[in-house]
Model the fold of this input.
Amino acid sequence: MLTSQPQDALSKPVLNIRRLSKSFGSQLVLNDVSFEVAKGATVCLLGPSGSGKSTLLRCVNWLERPDEGAIFLNGVRVGFRSGGTVPMTARELAEVRSHIGMVFQHFNLWPHLTVIENLIEAPIHVQKRNRDEVIAEAEALLERVGLRDKRDAFPARLSGGQKQRVGIARALAMKPELILFDEPTSALDPELVGEVIAVMKTLANDGMTMLVVTHEMGFAREAADEILLLDGGKIIEHCPPEAFFSRPKTERARQFLQRYVQA
Done:
């Protein structure tokens, strides 16, 4: 289990990012990024394409290794053993990752497995949990996302919106402490976006801790507890949604809102 047990654990952020920087060659993609995500909070990462949002998510899950800075999940440093100088082994990193769910742009479902098999694969084989218990929980999750009738369907038989809802249920099946969403509606036809957003709003209302990269301004306005606007790899706005949408502090934020928010 991922453990870090300070006496005031409940007041600690689930995710703490400190002075994170990442370059690809000569291109600085993330530049001294710091913020926290409290337990039960929904934080939306906004910004133009190329601003570093997806790279930031990949660093949180250690799919990309940052050049500088530190990432802590419930007080445990991601990627390094206690002390912060010795890299985690693959097994140790897998243990940390098992507490972080991720929902991708393009679903990433296993095409050769049915919907229920997609949900139970990791809890059974990675977390070594009881098969009957995992199946029962997976069926409840499919009910939660409105797909109980698709239990035995293969992904090829699902719409894009249904695939993404399965992706969300699959992330939830691992009982994560944090879910990362990387533009989960960007690959969907416009008429299918609403069904995925509805599930995400329910999760936000239920207190799931979420870090969401999105261009869905309605979701950010209605469901987020905090907004982070990235531009050129830096956080240029960090505030509650009401302040961001009504009283942006920077000219760059005002330009962004004019482009992405319909009048």
Notes: The CA atoms of residues 142 and 148 lie 5 Å apart.
